[in-house]
């Protein structure tokens, strides 16, 4: 019975876009059943004066021109090099081999056919475990084996530090004001008019790797909460860390009856303290750097609120029975699927993978705010989302490379991104109609802190410092920061600014 009910809910959700479109197309018509048709103002509307149809978001996307020329490249191969990691289909961002019936896969396939026909090109992809090393190899050899290199955001420092990349700001067809380029990420990553690692809608991992709080609605019901209760907290701006802790603090069941809290039990919240822990600092409205009038970076990380944030999180992670610290990365996805976590911090990708066969109803919520005074809900993406770079040898065919890449980004915005976001995430895999509104809230608050690109090098693990202190159960973050402050400033002055064209 439960499976049939969920199937019915899912079917209704899949009809929502069509129903919404019908509703929008009837905007401005008479919807008051008690009012006689043709009376008053309605009498002025004749059969030849139909109200103007309001366009859907998808239709509006199609109307935005990419402003690219009608170039033909005589069957030239456009080659992209990316990661072959098993935890995400990075090659699938670039190429789909065939139509399978899956909306996301087929959107990639059809996008490529359209671009290949338009420009007379062939799109190809290759991969290995460390694509960030390829730009240096290409620069040393002078060959153009690959035109664009794709790699995780957090390893961008490798090819940038090797001075093996061109800046996207020098490419002729990249219009960073177009909506298919991720302004949130690119504005921060553009230093002194140099942008070496670009993020766009060609990187659908920048969406699927976005973190949210997943909520098991069946377990919430067992603790006396209806979906409307938590949705109401979010909408009213009351979904704060204190409120969240209050909700989960009593959520614990000694499932195996051994009198000990362990991984066999049910908890209100838990995760392995890795990537999700990097979200808290952003979620609480803080940024690691700002830019001064010279365009240089000012470190804004260490302040009184940072200390307060860590103190709050340490208490939450170590003093509450409703929290469990899991031992392996992404264990929270398994425990959530097994109905052992009421809430879990996960990437949207989980909705496409581990949770697809989950019987319990679930929803997705923003990370909580620091307090009610905070203006909005914020989050970030797992630092393994894709960014794209131009290896030095692409300079010799920059017109071709820039044109095809821009076309891929534009068509991803128009067809691939909606397939992943609207049809799949907000429709196919969610089991509550208000989930779509919650997903929109999460996406509206995304932040892509540039410092992750140099997090392991120049920025001395500042983007991971909250995580590291939580793992160590160490409240003395001021001391940890003081140890790195001098080499951090030295690295910025002696290395970083030279890479971005600042003169000494």
List its traits.
504 residues; alpha/beta; D-Maltodextrin-Binding Protein, domain 2; 6-stranded mixed beta sheet; 5-stranded mixed beta sheet; 15 strands; disordered N terminus
Structural account:
With 504 residues, the chain is of the alpha/beta class. The protein has two domains: 60-207 and 383-429, D-Maltodextrin-Binding Protein, domain 2; 211-380 and 437-499, 3-Layer(aba) Sandwich (D-Maltodextrin-Binding Protein, domain 2), CATH 3.40.190.10. Helix content is 38%, strand content 13%. It is built from 17 helices and 15 strands. Strands 5, 6, 7, 10, 11 and 12 form a six-stranded mixed β-sheet that branches. A hairpin with a 5-residue loop joins strand 8 (289-291) and strand 9 (297-299). Helix 1 (2-25) crosses helix 14 (398-428). The radius of gyration is 25 Å and the shape is globular. The chain starts with a helix and ends in a 5-residue tail after the last helix.
Topology:
Elements: H1 2-25, H2 57-62, E1 76-83, H3 103-119, E2 121-128, H4 134-141, E3 148-152, H5 157-161, E4 165-166, H6 183-189, H7 205-208, E5 211-216, H8 217-222, H9 227-235, H10 241-248, E6 252-253, E7 266-271, H11 279-283, E8 289-291, E9 297-299, H12 304-318, E10 323-325, H13 331-337, E11 341-347, E12 362-365, E13 379-380, E14 386-391, H14 398-428, H15 435-444, E15 446-447, H16 465-472, H17 477-499
Parallel strand pairs: 1-2, 1-3, 7-10, 7-11, 13-15
Antiparallel strand pairs: 3-14, 4-14, 5-11, 5-12, 6-7, 8-9
Helix pairs in contact: 1-14, 3-14
């Amino acid at each position: 019975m439960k499976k049939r009910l969920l199937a019915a809910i899912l079917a209704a959700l899949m009809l929502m876009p069509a129903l919404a479109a019908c509703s929008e197309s009837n905007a401005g018509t008479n919807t008051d059943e008690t009012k006689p048709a043709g009376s008053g103002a309605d009498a002025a509307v004749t059969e030849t004066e139909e109200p103007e149809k309001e366009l859907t978001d998808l239709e509006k996307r199609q109307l935005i021109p990419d402003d690219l020329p009608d170039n033909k490249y005589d069957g030239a191969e456009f080659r992209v090099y990316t990661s072959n990691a098993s935890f995400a289909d990075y090659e699938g961002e670039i190429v789909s081999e065939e139509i399978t019936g899956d909306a996301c896969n087929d959107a990639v396939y059809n996008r490529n056919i359209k671009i290949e026909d338009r420009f007379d090109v062939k799109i190809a992809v290759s991969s290995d475990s460390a694509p960030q090393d390829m730009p240096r190899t290409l620069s040393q050899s002078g060959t153009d084996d690959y035109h664009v290199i794709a790699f995780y955001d957090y390893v961008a420092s490798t090819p940038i530090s090797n001075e093996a990349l061109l800046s996207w700001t020098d490419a002729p067809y990249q219009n960073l004001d177009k909506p298919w380029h991720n302004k949130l990420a690119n504005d921060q990553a553009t230093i002194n008019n140099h942008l070496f690692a670009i993020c766009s809608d060609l990187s659908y991992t920048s969406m699927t790797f976005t973190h949210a709080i997943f909520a098991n609605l069946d377990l919430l019901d067992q603790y006396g909460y209806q979906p409307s209760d938590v949705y109401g907290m979010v909408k009213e701006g009351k979904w704060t860390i204190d409120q969240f802790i209050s909700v989960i603090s009593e959520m614990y069941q000694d499932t195996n009856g051994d009198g000990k809290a362990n991984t066999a039990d049910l908890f209100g919240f838990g995760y392995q303290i890795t990537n999700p822990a990097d979200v808290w600092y952003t979620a609480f409205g803080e940024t690691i750097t700002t830019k001064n009038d010279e365009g240089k970076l000012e470190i804004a990380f260490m302040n009184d609120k940072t200390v307060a944030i860590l103190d709050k999180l340490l208490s939450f992670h170590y003093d509450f029975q409703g929290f469990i610290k899991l031992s392996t990365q992404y264990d929270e996805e398994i425990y959530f699927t097994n109905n052992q976590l009421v809430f879990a911090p996960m990437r949207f990708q989980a909705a496409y993978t581990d949770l697809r066969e989950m019987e319990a109803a679930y929803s997705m919520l923003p990370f909580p705010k620091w307090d009610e005074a905070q203006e909005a809900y914020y989050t970030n993406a797992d630092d393994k989302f894709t960014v794209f770079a131009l290896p030095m040898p692409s300079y010799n065919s920059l017109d071709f490379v820039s044109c095809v890449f821009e076309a891929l980004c534009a068509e991803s915005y128009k067809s691939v991104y909606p397939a992943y976001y609207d049809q799949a995430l907000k429709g196919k895999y969610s089991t509550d109609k208000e989930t779509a509104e919650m997903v929109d809230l999460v996406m509206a608050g995304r932040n892509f802190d540039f410092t992750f690109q140099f997090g392991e090098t120049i920025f001395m693990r500042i983007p991971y410092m909250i995580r590291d202190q939580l793992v160590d159960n160490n409240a003395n973050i001021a001391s940890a920061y003081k140890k790195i402050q001098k080499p951090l400033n030295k690295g910025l002055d002696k290395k970083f600014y030279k890479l971005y064209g600042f003169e000494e």
